[in-house]
Amino acid sequence: MELARLPLRRLASRLTEGIDSTLLVLIVSLSMLGLAALFSASYENPARVVNQFVSLGVALVAMWIVAQVPPQTLMRFALPAYVIGLVLLLAVALAGDVVNGARRWLHIGVTRFQPSEMMKLAVPMMLAWYFHRRESGLRLSDFAVGALILIVPVAFIVRQPDLGTAALVAAAGFYVLFFAGLSWKVLGAVVGLLAASVFPLWGMLHDYQRKRILTLLDPTQDPLGAGYHIIQSTIAVGSGGISGKGWLNGTQAHLEFIPERHTDFILAVYSEEFGLIGNGVLLVLYALLVARGLMIAANAATVFARLLAVAIALMFFTYAFVNMGMVSGILPVVGVPLPFLSYGGTALLTLFIGAGILMSVQRHRKLVQT
Amino acid sequence: MGAAELRNYEREVYQFQLRIGIAGVAVVIAFLMLAARFVYLQVVQHDIYRAKAEDNRISIVPVPPNRGLIVDRNGLVLARNYSGYTLEIFPRRTRSVEGTIDELAELIEITPRDRRLFRKLVAETRNAESLPIRTRLSDEEVAKFAANRYRFEGVEIKGRLFRQYPYGEVASHALGYMGRIDQADQARLEEDGIDANYRGTDYIGKAGVEASYQHELHGTTGFEHVEIDAAGRGIRTLSRTPSQPGNNVALTLDMTLQRVAENAFGERRGALVAIEPESGGVLAFVSKPGFDPNLFVDGIDPQNWAELNNSIDKPLNNRAIAGMYPPGSTFKPFMALAALELGKRTPRSTIHDPGYFDFGGRRFRDSRPGGNGVVDLYKSIVMSSDTYYYQVANDLGIDAIAGFMKHFGFGERTGIDLQGEASGVLPSPEWKMKRFKRPEQQKWYAGETISIGIGQGYNAYTPIQLAQAMATLADGGAMYRPHLIAYVDDPRTGERRPVEPELVHRVPVRRDHLEFVKRALAGVNKEGTAARSFANAPYTSGGKTGTAQLIGIKQNEKYEESKVAERLRDHSLFIAFAPLENPKIALSVVVENGGFGARAAAPIARTVLDYYLLGKLPQGMQQPTPEDETDEEGD
Question: Assuming Cys at both sites, which of A178, A294, A347, B543 could form a disulfide with B576, CB separation 3.0 to 4.6 Å?
Fold first, then answer.
């Protein structure tokens, strides 16, 4: 008996080794809420739920594998991943597929692939690696180099055009720069400059992007076009009330008023059916997730590990905030999925790998308080 | 680790953790903002939004506008709409699309072609609300389906407007055709920010005026507030913002002239462009062979599409603006003008033409063996002396030729209001430099200049360029941008927006030089190479024949037409204007593989001028009547 139980126990302990249970519980809870909302949103196409379930499984495995890799090893992938990502972005710019007016996809054999997606992790990794190597005595020039590392891929993604992803990559990179110790003075100067460049930037936007921002200010202007998303999603959220209409009872979603209700606008379906209480639960889960991430970052052993961890933790925050802000009508519609809830395998994979990295950092944290 | 370094490290970690604290506070504030927003929407404004969601049993349904008509300059309708019933499937509301089609097929005839077209549509369209499985249902079929409607969820009969072209193939390359909005169109509409105005619209202009005046023709989409039941089906219409019909567009074309011109071509391939010199308005616009735009209106089926695309005659090529032809001798009047303007020739100077011109050890032959004897400038045009222009080209040099010809629009898009215009090739050393990759090919050889003089060599122009150049010459050097649209009518206000002639520029040439060349062109039609075609014409006219060689002829070989395969035979060209004083029309004609210019192209020009100036219809032709309207051929 003893002999039979032993290998099982060893297997179990091997499987849970390096897995941070707090993170795991939070992520799995969020994913389950996502599946519930997705099931409601795709009553006419249940295959989507199955797909998402499979993607979740794959993403969990990926997370587990990454969690086993120590940060020192991860660091070796930083430069190659970044360079490959840049090359792929260049390839997209030259020979990518155009879908809905944007050049984002690259054909690889039989499947298509969005290189901008991998940059969400590759850019903060590269920056963390760079500042790790420059650890002793950071100068302003190092931040200039860092900014360059960030701006090149972001510029490519803006050109595609994919404003949502570009903003996310830019945010992730900015977090690394900020936590590497960018001085408040420089930060203030940059923010001032950015504010001053709003007008020229406005001129660079595509017409449809401008229109999105303008209809955000007054969605009723364009009820058939760009305003439609915002009008309908706010109605869905607002009509949910405190306790929601109940699972599978959302009229907005089921009468097909909400476009993209599986992906970017899944929160509208969720809030309509689960109400303010459901949203509160969601916000608390996200807040705990971000808090756990920041805690891991605070105890990280190396510069690389803590910079990467903090970037990932705040990335989770940014995704959640931008998406929820957009669906509830306080931020422009930029095409950012709700982390762990929106339908889509690629986005899930990125998020779970991010969580895996956090776990790896947590496992190799410094054990002695200095 | 030294003490200083340690302290440094500690400070760094302290800094880091401080910033983490700041970030934590920011996160909490941001989430509180969201929470406040949720409270605002879900508690404070809950009643309003609950009412709105209730109202949202009211759906906004787009009402597509009626497309504007296209008429000719006399108001004859060339493109209109007729309403027809289509059987449409809403893929998201049916359990199984294939199963539904099978069931429908028991009730209503659905051919394998219908199924193929439907599958193609499913593959090509994204997020479509509904897609047609059958178009043009008969009344009987509509009744049959209505009686059985309860059996089919997600299938509906829709009334739609279809485009119809009563004259079939006539003027097809000017009118263009319609096609389903594909992903590229959709992306363009989104880029322009007008995709909302295309909700509920499935077809868009793909070529010709249908494409270039798409935005005029389309109109404004209206919308209806429709109360819907839980299954999303409309119960009743509550309010309605009507759509506004598209503008009607009138062409400058004269449909009778157009038919005369197309008939004159018969089965031959080629192009004809006739322009009103004083405005640039296009009077006739022929590209043969054409196609029947009616084939496209409800999605062209793969078989017809393959036939049109794979035909050796290339019926979808718009030869009038995208076909590039060497101008042959029609280039000579412009060369003569260049020689006069640049002081290389005077009207009186003569040469002896032995039937060839030797240059750099090569012998350039005249098309007339033995030559034309003593030739002056007038005779050089009237008899079309090659030797004369070999020498002119050599004396002018390639840079001067290219510089002068630019004034007449050679090698540049005319800017006609159609898409897909080619720019042609005005050869010059710079052009060759850009065109070729290898250094030995990039060099311009003096010998290459010689054949440029007679419109051969690298010269390649579109028929619209030739017509524009002719019109410019006829109108005393005033070059107008060619255009196909006379005016745009707003059917609601009755407001008419005429298209004003657009003067591109005035060619800087001396009046007497221009008049001399025009006199010589008149000589061509009176006593020269086109004299036979213009025998007994009761009006004055000027013209120039041209023959464009397609194969190089060896130096001492005689060209024997009968031996050359039909597709390798020379193109026959003719440019003309009339009357001599105060010209009303200028044109260019290209007959592909038609042989000598005087034989194939010039008689077509005569027929067209006879009708336009005298109202004389060719034998056997009547005033045009639309093709039988009930004729709805498709399959």
Answer: B543
